[in-house]
Amino acid sequence: MPRRDDEIPVYAPEIPMRGRPSPKVFMIVFIILIILLLSYLSVYVVDLGYAAVTVDPLTGKISDPIVGPRVALKMPWQSVKHVYIATDVLHMWTDVNATSYGYGSSIGDYPAVETLTKDGLQAWIDITVRWHISPSSLPVLVRNYPAIDYEDKLIVPAIRQVCRDVVSNYEAAEVPLARGKIGVEIFEALQSSLSKDPTTGGGIILDEVYIRNIRLPDEFLKAIQEKLTSQQRMIAAYFERNRTLILANASATAKVLEAEGEAKSRLILINATSEIVDILVKKGAKPNEIASLLVYMEGLKDISKSNATIVIAGGNIPLIYPIRGGG
Asked: Which of 71, 171, 181, 282 has the CA that lies 20 to 30 A from 31?
């Protein structure tokens, strides 16, 4: 077609087509991804308070433990088992009054240990146990407990068995007073049991056993309380009886001593008077005059003890007239 004068030619630049990535780029990206994946599968972290071992499914070998905090390496196909080795605690208790107290839970990690006393009475032990794991025993522990469930399969049954064995040596009436001794015996027996267990290589180390409570049936406790109250009353009556006897003996002794003192006093007075009379007789005094004088003096002494007016009539032998109410 012939060109017209009013037409303006327009030129559009050609956009070059992007080519597909070369195989070299794909290879580089693939290698980077493989390296990242291998790094992710070969590096693991052990936290503080934990230890870890690697398990090789090809050879069945369990590595030596790595104690955290650490960053460690392993083969990509190996698995890692983490075990808590810091101090752990297990609570076994049941609170029968938890609902009335408004507690959220009536039991600890496990319910109280139910057992029987020597005389066949039922008892419940509230106990707390603290322990830790020795890192060197991890290979044996992981091999025997691959799910790391040794607490449910070993520790809890051992605690129940030891508690029942120890409490069965005590009669029910002895249990409340022997709680401290029972705690010591449970600790020693449980420590011996765990340290000799071959499935852990002796790696469970007991730190503490705390007996929170040993609960006996309410009817038995009520009977014990009534018996103690009766014994206390008997003891109080016994001491009151002894006190009365002691006071009576003391009073009787005091009267005897008083009488003995009065007798000795009169004897001393008689002896002194006799000596005076002998002296007066030797000096020429007449016995009848001395006798009258003694009677007179005794009369004055008796009247002086009464608050009375005294009238004395003269003569060879004075007469004494006490007038009552005088002042």
From this structure: 71
Distance CA 214, CA 177 (A): 10
Tokens of 144: 């025997």
Tokens describing residue 30: 């693939």
Note whether 43 and 71 are within 8 A (CB). yes
Question: How far apart (Å, rounded) are the C-alpha atoms in residues 61 and 53?
Answer: 10
The answer to whether the peptide bond before residue 69 is cis (omega within 30 degrees of 0) is yes
- Give the model's pLDDT for residue 327: 44
Alpha-carbon distance of 93 to 88, in angstroms, equals: 17
Q: With contact defined as beta carbons under 8 Å apart, do 145 and 230 qualify? A: no
Rounded to whole angstroms, the Cα distance separating 223 from 205 reads 41
Nearest-angstrom CA–CA distance, 167 and 116: 7
Q: Match 């009375």 to its residue by tokens.
A: 308
Tokens standing for residue 268? 């001393």
- Nearest Cα residue to 178 out of 125, 108, 110: 125
Backbone angles phi and psi of 81, in degrees to 5: -115, 120
164-173: pLDDT as tens digits = 999 999 998 8
What predicted TM-score, i.e. pTM, was given to this entire model? 0.61
